[in-house]
Amino acid sequence: TSLALQPAITPELVQGRVHLKCSYSPPHPEPPVQFRVLWSRLSSPGKREQIHQETTPQPFSYVEMDGANLRLGDTVFCTVTAFRRGIPEQQSLPEDSKGFYAGIKFLPESLEIAEDGKEHVLTVLSTVPIACPGQDDSCKMTLQLSTEDLGSQVPGPPDIALSACQVDLLPEPCSGSSCAAATVTVTAVTDFAQDGNRVSRVSARPAAPRDVLWRAYTPRDVKVTVRDLPTGNCYSFTDPHIITFDGWRYDSHKIGTFLLCRSESRAFEVHIRQWDCGGHRSATACNCGVAAR
């Protein structure tokens, strides 16, 4: 029957190399048992490929992430079966661990933001330990970040901006699903264009990794959908007629320099200068200069 072995995978550094450890709960009190541990990885959706199998009396099993049989980007499972020593045909039902994704994760995995100037925090984390080959003081994994527009109706530069072009993942004790983490903020570019909702992506690439494990690895991208917000307009034209953001209309025939618009939430304002363009016939002023901050 099922023994509730509850196999679970955790990452670990063993002699400076990245290993995955499958731990399970042996039954008590029972006669001595052996465990058959089968390691597999997701080769395609819903399909697993066996990578290692062993029989052990220990309540754990290790497999190395060697970059060949087991690579970064793999989702790994361990399946455990127990049997009494000397009676291999009497075995418990096989029990699966949850899938363990080995590599870089972005949290959240996708973002939907608006052109409202707000900053959104994106966490970049490694689910496996950062190994440090050699006795180098600067032990870290640098990720180069980039953004790209994903074929919107109006082609152009990405609709998002990042607070940094690269982040450093510094080794720390593994906790939860994170062995190293850094944050970057994502902001929608306010372009004042009615260009519809656009999709961009954030990509991360390991920069000049010394560790073989990281060399051929490309982390998953993050999709960022930017919701277009309607843009307000105000006008000052002809002699001058002024239409405000909320549609109020009036005329201003005065001569001088005036504050046309000022934001209460950010450093933005517009000044206009008006001069006499009506002569003796009428008191008319026209815009002759504008300054925007």
TrEMBL record:
Keyword flag Transmembrane helix: no
Coiled coil regions, renumbered to chain: none
Gene Ontology molecular function terms on file: signaling receptor binding
GO cellular component, one term: cell surface
All copies of domain VWFD, residue ranges: 232-293
PROSITE patterns recorded: VWFD (PS51233)
Any Pfam family hit: Ig_VWDE
InterPro entries: Dev_Signal_Modulators, Ig_VWDE, VWF_type-D
Highest taxon, organism lineage: Eukaryota
Key words of the record: Disulfide bond, Signal
Designated name of the protein: VWDE protein
Originating organism: Peucedramus taeniatus (Olive warbler)
Classification lineage: Eukaryota, Metazoa, Chordata, Craniata, Vertebrata
